[in-house]
Design brief:
alpha+beta, Arc Repressor Mutant, subunit A, SH3 type barrels, 4 domains, five-stranded antiparallel beta sheet, four-stranded antiparallel beta sheet
Amino acid sequence: MRLDRLLSIVIKLLSHKRLTTKQLALEFGVSIRTIFRDLQTISLSNIPIVSIQGKQGGWEIMPDYLLDRRVLSLDDIANILSALSSVERGISHPSVKQTLDKMSSLIPQSKNKDIAQKMNHVVIDSQPWGMGKSLQNKLTDIQTAIYDSVLITFTYHNLKKEQLARIVEPMTLLLKGANWYLFGYCQNKKDFRLFRLSRIQKLKISDQSFSRREKSINDYREKAKNPDKSVKLTLQFHKEASTFISDMFGLEHAEYTGEYGMLQVQLPENEWLYGLLLSFGSSIQICKPKRIADLIKNRAQNIVKLYS
């Protein structure tokens, strides 16, 4: 326990520059005498800790001290901080913040500006435009349940337009494309399931714990690569719609003739696919298979009737 406290004191001083003995004692819930002994031990470990006298005084570690230059380069630290910052933007969990603080403590003050510039080379923001805090709150709650290994309950809106109560052992949060998913063991279905977060409502964290099962998200993803039911589509689109088509399918294998392009894609056949095809409106035409073309045509006609 004392070793953990000693490391935490070092990280605190590296992160906050200067702290008083009283502040450290309050932070770690120990006496001032204990903090003095800890600081003496840290100093004897060849960590350059110094005492600053006066009204603004306290304890600090010499500015250019780095915990271990041999293990991580500044580029390594910048890459790790950039990745962790991207995670924190989506999942505001204390454990992520603590790790960020620890990694930040490895940076000499003279290199802070260089690291900040490197961290801006790539920025990943998982929050959709206009989503506000609702998605982040849901992510944080689920991450807390995963971290604590406790059950969650919610109402799930599936593709069959059903609203079903679910009791789930949460295991993994997955960001796939532009959408967040929860992978977990559904106690109602007695099997592993992938739940889209946007369809989860009335989320509650219970106080009932569970033991994490052996199966991982990677096992599930391998199975998802070969869905039980998929369909090969041949799509025709006008060049003016290339941007929209590229956003969803990519155009690396498209073939163009005049003003039109042709593209073949293999996708799982379900309600998601039908909704996706309808969302393109008149930007695409389904050439094959005719069965899918007829299905989309009938649904489009039903939409027209709705507004007639």
